[in-house]
Amino acid sequence: MEESKPKLKLSIYWAAACGGCCVSVLDVHEKLFDVVAAADLVFWPIALDTKYEDVEKMPDNHIDVTLFNGAVRNGENEHMAKLLRKKSKILVAYGSCSHLGGIPGLANFSTKEDIFRRVYQESESVINPEKVQPLPEFKVNEGILSLPEFYNDVRSLGQVVDVDYCIPGCPPQTERLLEVFGVIVSGAELPPKGSVIGAETKTQCDECTRKKTEEKRIKKFYRPWEVTDDGVTCFMEQGVLCMGPATRSGCGYRCIMGNAPCRGCYGPPPGVTDPGAKMMSAIASIIDEKEPEDISKVLEDVVDPAGLFYRFSLPVSLIRRKLS
Fold first, then answer.
1. The whole model's pTM is what?
2. Which of 218, 251, 283, 301 has the highest Cβ tally under 10 A?
3. Which CATH number describes the domain made up of 8-103+154-196?
């Protein structure tokens, strides 16, 4: 009788993120039975009553695969990143926030002091005349209450610990997760360490089936709600900014299929270190003006260019953050 193959030990952790990545894991639907047949979940705080101290007691490399979703925003996130790195054979940056810094990374356009002042003092819904703010430690009669230290900078997982693989997306497509999981379970040879997996090497534009002309010329940019999309023509040719030229394919260009421009969540294609710079280059090539003042007028239509071009990637970009 053939011996059954031992199950993999799988863990999932949620750091600074919205929770969509954890939902994408649940979105495997009936395929969950295949996952359960091949792997035991040993740590998943939203689903299992496993404590941090239980993970700390595990032998090093006890966990076969950890999907770490979320950026590193505070001391707790960093502690768990380092702990799970130590306890895991394969550590995967799962989703845009872990891979690139994601939406939480946009906070790097501000400072810790700016954020605390706005949230705890200036917000329209807050009454705080004494200007009380959270402290890492506070002494009470019963002892010391503690909170994770809130860092000035948001970082990607790879900026804190050594990462084996990255699966991009906000959230990653469930089909890609199942493909990657299948490869790991089968024991097939994995890509080189540090690879982006569950994605393609081309750009969204290379996959997109919307009609494009050889030479795009734009005299004005619009917000998506300012035009009536015809559902057929390239968004950029309609004057609507789409991150497709600077974004890796692999999601099935689902936003575009849903008649919405690409947001850039799959990150830059291979060879591109800064998607924002790549997108600015793409825009510069299609503006149909020659005089500097006319070009500047066209660019005024681009609302919040920093937030648009670096929506998911500010912490790993060339600019990294706003200078204090």
1. 0.91
2. 251
3. 3.40.50.700
